[in-house]
User: Fold this.
Amino acid sequence: MTTTTAAPITIALSQLPVIKAAVDKNLQTHLAYIERAAALGANVVAFPEHSLTGYELALLNQLAMPHNDKIFATLTAAAVATNTVVIAGCPLHNPNGKPFIAAVICFPNGEHTFYLKQHLHEGEDVYCAPGHEIGLINVNGTRIALAVCADFTHPSHSAIAAAQQADVYLASALISPGGYAQDAELLADIAQRHQLPVLLANHVSTTGGWQTCGNSGGWSAAGELTVKANGTQPSLVLCRVQHGALSGNVEVMNHLHQKGSVTD
Assistant:
């Protein structure tokens, strides 16, 4: 699906430890991953669902961030400094009701916008509201459709993305060990059905009472798992997309999380 005029791009999937409600500490970890991803040639740096706060539904109201939060300014400054597009997960304040589960998208031109999760898991509607707009960004001629977790379990979501000529389908999520096999099958099916690479950024920490399994990675347009992190190792999964083909490698980030690191 990617046009021959699109330049090759590298999307870094950030698989990082997240501390419950510790936004400032989590932000520092994000900045370290963004810097390293950019040094490795990434054009896009993507993080899991609720990566800035952890998946803490009961705290969503107090953690919800205004659209002009200083956190977004800091992430946007990092996007500018590294010439990358940064996509991070956060609860977003909704002036008309319950907060949204959002992905903030920070661009190297100094602007930022949001994608709002459209399809909520059972029980999430108690704490948050769904969004309604498709998230599609253009990076160096490659059109990237954004999904947050349950979005990709609804066939209509990826079908609309494909109809809008997306070249890559990028999902941020929280997936547990027991749910990974089924979700991986769904993601592989999306890739094969719509003939486009599908990427997953997942958590590695226990968050919101959920044990998670990592395994962030990417499926080729043939539905084959082409690159994947080793379980829950803190990692950057570097996914290169060129003319619709997917390749990649994994950079282990354990050195960032030893004593004296940004998360201590």
